[in-house]
Write a structure and sequence with these properties.
- It is a single chain.
- This protein has a seven-stranded mixed sheet, with helices on one face.
- The chain is globular, with a radius of gyration of 20 Å.
- α5 links the parallel β11 and β12.
- With 367 residues, it is α/β, with parallel strands linked by helices.
- It starts with a strand and ends with a strand.
- It has one domain: Metal-dependent hydrolases (TIM Barrel, Alpha-Beta Barrel).
Length: 367
């Protein structure tokens, strides 16, 4: 792990040494300006908090699909992620969560670490399903408790305007779960009330939520006015670069997610997203009616897209690694410093992946 290393205090030209426990033992090097040399970039591994699948598999497919997905995304520099569910009937979702719980207990050799689960639905507005199936529901304390017992839920997306959901937000926040607003027809006032109740984020900002209008600011307006954290899909298809720039100015720790589907890392063709059939073609994935249904974005491309719209590499790196780790309260991921997990992405000068290490294991090596 040699090259221009991005540390919390700046760039060092040197080498990372990992200990037998998979954590960074020490970093040796001297302050450097990457423009002054031709060494590779050594960045914190990418952290993806909204990911439905990859390599032809979906997280709703069951336990056996998880290693396939984790090995698919590590090829693109993702060293840790949340497995994201789709809206489904209660028993189907409960079964899926129990399978994901078992999968979280171990990291497959050569794969990324699954940090837990992002429950995206079913507690969403049926008028803003996007590509979610028509199985949305109103949350209950009893049902949510079952899900919390079934798997390590780290993030839950819900629509704040639905009856009783402010109480659910309070319940989840008290349990340390990050609550995000998404798939919502809520007003600005609904979103502000949810933030006051303990919500802390916004799911795929701009998409599947009420837009900003000058007399009706909507959920987007609440995010731009109040959010410290929000996630966004920077594939330059879900959100226009101008809107991304506006969000970057307004939200201090805006971070990237892929919202990847089973089609990520795969050729054009027919795939599935939960119970939905989706079609990958021309760099996007859609339902038969043309609705965008997740993405085929990978985190290395998210990094390159941030750079392409004007961010310097260090800032782009923070938005694919540090900020999502901070959102989950993880001090030992998303950063390269002694004591942190040795989750590392090595990129060449064109920002292509050359090597990836997860907890000290070299999982990817490209010529």
């Amino acid at each position: 792990m040699k090259g221009n290393i991005l540390t919390p205090t700046g760039w060092l030209l040197g080498e990372i040494h990992a200990g037998p426990d998979g954590r960074i033992a020490r970093i040796e090097g001297v302050p450097a300006t990457p423009a002054d040399n031709d060494a590779p970039y050594v960045l914190p591994g990418f952290v993806d908090l909204l990911n439905h699948g990859g390599g032809g598999k979906d997280f709703m497919d069951g336990e056996a699909a998880v290693p396939v997905i984790l090995r698919a995304h590590v090829r693109f520099g993702t060293t840790s992620l949340l497995g994201s569910t789709m809206t489904a009937p209660h028993e189907v979702l409960l079964t899926a969560l129990k399978a994901l719980d078992r999968a979280c207990a171990r990291r497959p050799a050569g794969g990324a670490r699954m940090l837990g689960v992002h429950l995206e639905g079913p507690y969403i507005n049926p008028g803003k399903l996007g590509a979610q199936p028509e199985s949305s529901a109103i949350a209950t304390q009893r049902e949510m408790a079952q899900y919390l017992d079934a798997a390590p839920l780290k993030v839950v997306t819900l629509a704040p305007e639905l009856p009783g959901h402010l109480d659910i937000i309070r319940m989840l926040a008290a349990r340390g779960v990050r609550v995000q607003l998404g798939h919502t027809l809520g007003s600005y006032e609904d979103a502000v009330a949810a933030l006051e109740a303990g919500a802390s984020g916004f799911t795929h900002l701009f998409n599947a939520m009420t837009p900003l209008q000058h007399r009706a600011p909507g959920v987007v307006g609440a995010a731009l006015a109040h959010a410290e954290f929000a996630e966004l899909i920077p594939d330059l298809l879900h959100v226009h670069p101008g809107a991304i720039r506006a969000a970057l100015r307004a939200i201090p720790r805006l971070y990237a997610v892929t919202d990847a589907t089973a089609a990520a890392g795969m050729p054009d063709g027919v795939y599935h997203l939960g119970s939905q059939t989706v079609y990958k073609a021309g760099g996007s994935v859609r339902l038969a009616n043309g609705t965008l249904s997740g993405s085929v974005l990978t985190m290395d491309q998210a990094l390159r897209n941030f750079v392409a719209i004007g961010l310097d590499l260090a800032e782009a790196s923070r938005r694919v690694s540090l900020y999502p780790a901070q959102y989950l309260g993880l001090a030992d991921r998303g950063s390269l410093a002694p004591g942190c997990w040795a989750d590392v992405a090595v990129l060449d000068r064109a920002l292509a992946i050359r090597a990836v290490y997860v907890e000290g294991e070299r999982c990817v090596e490209n010529a």
